């Protein structure tokens, strides 16, 4: 049975971060959808993931998975909070969005019928798991 190698796991984590980074840029710059406050915080975790994991691959340093885990946990926390606001589990009175900006909970948070916070949470979770796997794999 073929197992996923640590290098492959790290490459998949980097590709996920890269796709997610380009996707949010497409949503904002091409589709013209202004990100809410929580989307900005999620970007603050995702964009460095694409750079750091890419550099780790370039330098063949699988230990970079440590940083992938840390950034993915931070981003997943924000995405989880955002999703809680979106689905109504967290009262709107404590949402960080202002009345003059885009809302964290309105219909602009959907893409192809899927909530953007859910997509972000899935991406951060996948990146974190792949980064952790890349550390677990024995270096030979």
From TrEMBL:
Q: How does it sit in the membrane?
A: Multi-pass membrane protein
Residue ranges spanning the membrane: these are: 42-60, 67-90, 110-135
Molecular functions (GO terms): protein-disulfide reductase activity
Q: Which GO terms describe its cellular component?
A: membrane
A biological process (GO) annotation for this entry? protein folding
Q: Name the family.
A: Belongs to the DsbB family. BdbC subfamily.
Q: Which PANTHER family match?
A: DISULFIDE FORMATION PROTEIN-RELATED, SPBETA PROPHAGE-DERIVED DISULFIDE BOND FORMATION PROTEIN B
The protein's name is: Disulfide bond formation protein B
Whose protein is this, by species?
Roseovarius spongiae
């Amino acid at each position: 049975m073929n197992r996923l190698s640590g290098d492959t796991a790290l490459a998949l984590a980097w590709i996920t971060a890269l796709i997610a980074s380009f996707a949010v840029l497409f949503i904002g710059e091409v589709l013209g959808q202004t990100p809410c406050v929580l989307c900005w915080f999620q970007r603050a975790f995702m964009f460095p993931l694409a750079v750091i994991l890419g550099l780790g691959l370039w330098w063949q340093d699988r230990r970079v998975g440590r940083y992938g885990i840390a950034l993915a946990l931070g981003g997943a926390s924000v995405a989880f909070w955002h999703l809680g606001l979106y689905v109504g589990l967290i009262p709107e009175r404590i949402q960080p969005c202002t009345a003059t900006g885009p809302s964290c909970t309105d219909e602009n948070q959907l893409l192809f019928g899927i909530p953007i916070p859910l997509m972000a949470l899935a991406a951060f979770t996948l990146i974190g798991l792949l980064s952790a796997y890349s550390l677990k794999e024995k270096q030979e």
